[in-house]
Amino acid sequence: MRLRPGVCHTVEDAIGKGFRPIIPRETIGDRVPGVAQWNLYDIDNKFGDVESTDSVVDYLNGLPRFEDTVPKNLSGPQSEVLAPANPA
C-alpha cells in the first residue's frame, strides 16, 4: 500500500475520532523507500504506533474474543426501541 495520501489521512481521521491507530510497518511502502520511512517515522512520533506486523498480529490474537466481552445482561435478544412518531 502506498503511504500517501490514504494511510496518512486514515491515521489523521482515527486520531480525530479519539483512536490511537496501530500501523503495521511492513504493510506500507512507496516508490521511494526514504519517503515511506520518513512518513512512518512522522506517524509514529505524532499520531499512532508503527509496529512490526508480527507484533500487531500477536497483540490482536491476544485480545479476548468479542463474544467473551459482551455483558451477560446484553447477550440475549433485545427489545426494539421505537423512535417517536411525531418528533417535535
Uncertain runs: none
End-to-end CA span: 48 Å
User: What does the main sheet amount to?
Assistant: 2 strands, parallel
Shape: elongated
Number of domains: 1
Mean pLDDT equals: 82
Radius of gyration: 20 Å
Number of helices: 3
**Secondary-structure element string:** HEHEH
Strand order of the largest sheet: 1-2
Taken as a percent bin, the fraction of beta residues is: 5-15%
Structural class: mainly alpha
Number of DSSP E strands: 2
What helical percentage do the residues reach? 40-55%
Structure description:
The chain is 43% helix and 7% strand. The protein has 88 residues and is mainly alpha-helical. The chain has one domain. A two-stranded parallel ribbon has the order 1-2. The longest helix has 14 residues, at 3-16. The mean pLDDT is 82.
Summarize the structure.
With 88 residues, the protein is mainly α. It has helices at 3-16, 33-46, 53-62; strands spanning 22-24, 49-51. It is built from three helices and two strands.
Provide the fold topology.
Blueprint: H1 3-16, E1 22-24, H2 33-46, E2 49-51, H3 53-62
Parallel strand pairs: 1-2
InterPro entries: Isochorismatase-like_sf
What are its keywords?
88 residues; two-stranded parallel sheet; 2 strands; 43% helix; Isochorismatase-like_sf
